[in-house]
Amino acid sequence: MFRFQHLALLDIVSSVLKRDRNCRYCMILFAGIAAEALVYGEAEGGENDENLFRSLCVLLDPPLSVAQMANRARWSVMQSYN
């Protein structure tokens, strides 16, 4: 876990995300939404997580398009369920 946190800090400081680490961040962001949907049958929260997700996607070089963001979000939610 420490290695992941260290890499996250390096990414934030450099303002450029690596695509493989972005996938991990996205899974973590959507895990809470997925857990809420599993437990309660629907997810009411998560707006902040979605906004942070969009902000992270912009840091990629090149940034993700809207369609790519939607695909990444769906993939992240599916990975969170597994």
Notes on the protein architecture:
The protein contains four helices and no strands. It has one domain. With 82 residues, the chain is mainly α. α2 (19-40) packs antiparallel against α3. It starts with a helix and ends with a helix.
The rough form would be described as elongated
Alpha plus pi helix count: 4
Strand residue percentage: under 5%
Number of domains: 1
Terminal CA distance: 19 Å
Which regions contain 5 or more consecutive residues with pLDDT less than 50? Answer: none
Structural class: mainly alpha
Largest sheet: none
Percent helix range: over 70%
- What integer is the average pLDDT? 76
Order of helices and strands: HHHH
- Total strand segments: 0
Radius of gyration: 13 Å
List descriptors.
single chain, mainly alpha, elongated
Helix-strand blueprint:
Elements: H1 2-14, H2 19-40, H3 47-59, H4 66-81
Task: Give a brief description.
By secondary structure, the protein is mainly alpha-helical.
